[in-house]
Amino acid sequence: MIRVRIRFEKKGPVRFIGHLDVMRYFQKVMRRAKIDIAYSEGYSPHQLMSFAMPLSVGATSDAEYADLTLRSFPGRTMDDPPREAPDLSLLIARLNDVMHEGITVTDACVLPEGAKKAMTAVCACGWRVSFRPDVLRNEDITLPAEGSLRQAFLAFLDRPSIPALKKTKAGEKQIDLRPFIYEADCSDDGVFTLLLKAGSEDNVKPSLLLGAFLGKNELPPAALVLHRTQIYQAHPERERVILPLIADPADASSLKMLPATV
Amino acid sequence: MHCAADEHLALTDAQLLSVEKPERYIGHEVHAVYKDAGAVDVRYCICFPDVYDIGMSNLAIQIIYGMLNERDDVWCERACAPWTDLECLMRKEQIPLFALESQDPLREFDILGFTLQYELCYTNVLQMLDLARIPLYAKDRTDCDPLIMGGGPCTYNPEPVADFFDFFYIGEAETGFHEMIDLYKEAKRDGLSRRDFLRRVARMPGIYVPSLYDVTYHEDGTVRAVTPAEEGIPAVIEKELVRNLSDCYYPLKPVVPFIRVAQDRVTLEILRGCIRGCRFCQAGQLYKPFRERDIEVLIRWGIAMLENTGHEEITLSSLSSSDYSSLAELVECLIPYCNEHHVNISLPSLRIDAFSLDVMRRIQDIKKSSLTFAPEAGSQRLRNVINKGLSEDDILRGAREAFLGGWNKVKLYFMLGIPTETEEDLAGIGDIAGKICTEYFDHVPKEERGGRSVEVTASSSFFVPKPFTPFQWAAMDTREMYQEKVRIVKRSIASQVNQKRIRYTYHMSDASVLEGVFARGDRRLSSAVLSAYRKGAVYDAWTEHFDMSKWLSAFEECGIDPAFYAHRERPKEEVFPWDHIRCGVGKEYLYREWERAKRGLESVNCHDGCVQCGAAFYQTGCCVR
Ligand code: SF4
Ligand code: SF4
Description:
The structure holds two protein chains of two kinds. By secondary structure, chain A is an alpha+beta fold. Chain A has helices spanning 19-32, 88-97, 118-121, 133-138, 149-157, 206-213, and strands spanning 2-10, 49-51, 60-70, 103-110, 122-131, 163-168, 171-176, 181-186, 192-197, 224-234, 241-244, 256-257. The longest helix of chain A has 14 residues, at 19-32. The radius of gyration of chain A is 20 Å and the shape is globular. Chain B is an alpha/beta fold. Chain B has 20 helices and 19 strands. Chain B has helices spanning 13-17, 52-55, 59-69, 84-92, 122-131, 173-189, 194-201, 282-286, 295-309, 327-340, 354-363, 380-385, 392-404, 423-443, 479-494, 510-519, 526-534, 548-557, 562-566, 587-598, and strands at residues 42-48, 74-80, 111-115, 147-151, 167-169, 207-208, 213-217, 223-228, 237-238, 266-269, 271-272, 291-292, 313-317, 344-346, 371-376, 409-416, 455-462, 502-506, 581-582. Chain B is globular. In chain B, 49% of the residues are buried. The A-B interface holds A 11-14, 16-18, 21, 24-25, 27-32, 34, 39, 43-45, 57-58, 98, 100-102, 132, 134-135, 220-222, 225 and B 1, 3-7, 9, 13-14, 16-18, 22-23, 26-30, 256, 258-260, 306-312, 341-342, 365. Bound molecules: iron/sulfur cluster (2 copies). One iron/sulfur cluster binds next to helix 8 of chain B.
């Protein structure tokens, strides 16, 4: 058995495919591409495949991740211990051959033994977001005047604390978003670039942060044009350093320092 | 090929995000076909008058889609009825109905081909035309409008919706579709008017152009005659039929929807038609004669489809799979591949016997699966009336063998309202369910039950007499009669010793009555369909949307008595609104069977003999063996 992580983009009309259907889609991809994926034991075996994080319906992404457990690699069996690194480009090509054009595998790596699942490793997400003014208008939400958006946003970030009402399974809960905002900026034409804490605890969605910015609770999904740029994990050795779910820890260009307040 | 990133959608993101399952409206599924609209001669759109999840499970749609898109001169797209949330939005924001692939308005197409799968979809046909901004009545359309075509099982009596359609294609698509498209292409090139094209296409086999036929009525409201209105238009329309199923088009690369649709699996159609002439069954008559596909072809296709789609289940589909002559061998050949690739095989419509139990044991998880019997009637007398060649012995033996094999769940299907039915026949439903429980307790020792017990579910539906069946002369029960029958069945179940192990479910009756009206209706019903639609009737096949009061007031407004269509027994000599359409079986044969039914006499199936039904006209399948 060998564990592999793949990275894929989600673009175009397929952005409307929900998370469960993306998973079903990948299960069928594995069969179409004849990938020798491992199955769980038991009465109704399922493919050993898990995704890093759901992406909201309508959002696009440069970097989604899934972990696969393979029994063999395209082109060779795993019976004998691999002497040389398996050819990941062959795997990627096989997958992309049967993929929908909006979903493309862009990278892959073999996971070292004992590596955390992508799902548990996630610690932050990068976003590029803008408002849909017409939807906000329908919700009776007004935006800061044209030209002053960036100013207003930076002032908002300057506050020592940013309270927000977060909906959880257990109900609503008041949290402070400030420590979970790792990077945030807004361009003059209204595009927000965000790096927010993510994961099973204290997951901060752009809709919650930008809702707080507009003095509201979480914004409805249609209010934002959402694009995920990256999903990060903690650096194996260095504190307050994060890197993408597929990246070389030794490659300085892929690392990000978190602010000292974290 | 097109590029996904710059693909335009008919709906904005905000609109798509405001409706349930936006994936229904974006196209782009695996194996969806994209072409350059400017580079084809004919733009055809398959229209399914129900929601996407149901439409995309339909085999005929996949066949027509794949078959037409093989042609370079045609781009065939798909459109389904928008669910009510989107329908509402489209009306409010004035968005015209669009096709899934190009996302272009349906108005821009040459031909819209509606699949008429069940009678209760008729208001959705109007909903789609209306949202597409196409005049609802065929007579109001001009040369600028697309041609509106209908196909599917309801076209064997299309009269209730005849006024809305320009033409119908009757029978199996594989044989005449290409020719019909060629004819259209020619007409378009020659600048033929709509009317002239219809005159031409009406001469093609299998094509029915309702506006070219006059219907006259007797004073009592029954049909006097349906006659061609012009010289050269055929007086009868014979259905189209594939002679050799192993040598015809099959969609080896069906569209794979993103969402989980009703049939989220490979459908391998192993045969068409049925050798058994159950007298209530319309499908059994419409698709005669019985024709099988070669086993080699099926294995090849099945595996190719699994590889092309990545589905994790394959269903061997037919009206009656047990009648496939090499079923054991077929399953045997598919099992190794399916085991290796974690693919499930499903085999609906099997008769339960030692053989089928053995097959099922090998492909299913016994603990989870339940066995299905369709005795349809509670007594042997009534089963003889419907010619269901299934005896109580067969059922009890099948159940016993199943229990010994480890099954403990049994489903039983019945119909209430079968002609000649008595209280005794109804009470038989409880008896048979009770006897099945007894089989279990008598043959499965306590220590082998593993803490489980037998679970019997008996379901009943309301019998609807259909055209082209021996019961087409019969009166359908009224709602009140049906409810009384449900009470009798409940009592009979409650009186069983093991009544706690038996569950009884039944469907409500209003929708069935409406189905009964349309099944044997005539052209005058079109006005009622329109009136009900105007009152807001849509998605009538969905319990949560069905509203009989809208229909009752529509009938009243149009001066139509639903009982005339549903609850009236017809005399032998009555001309039926569908008499000019032929599906192979003759009216004389059907009447013979109706008389035998009333006397409780069974007839042989096509395997054991031939009752000269008329389908031998097609010179193929079981008729030439
Ligand atoms: S077996 Fe009977 S009910 Fe089933 S398809 Fe054939 S004729 Fe119809
Ligand atoms: S002609 Fe005879 S064999 Fe052919 S379908 Fe009819 S009854 Fe069966």
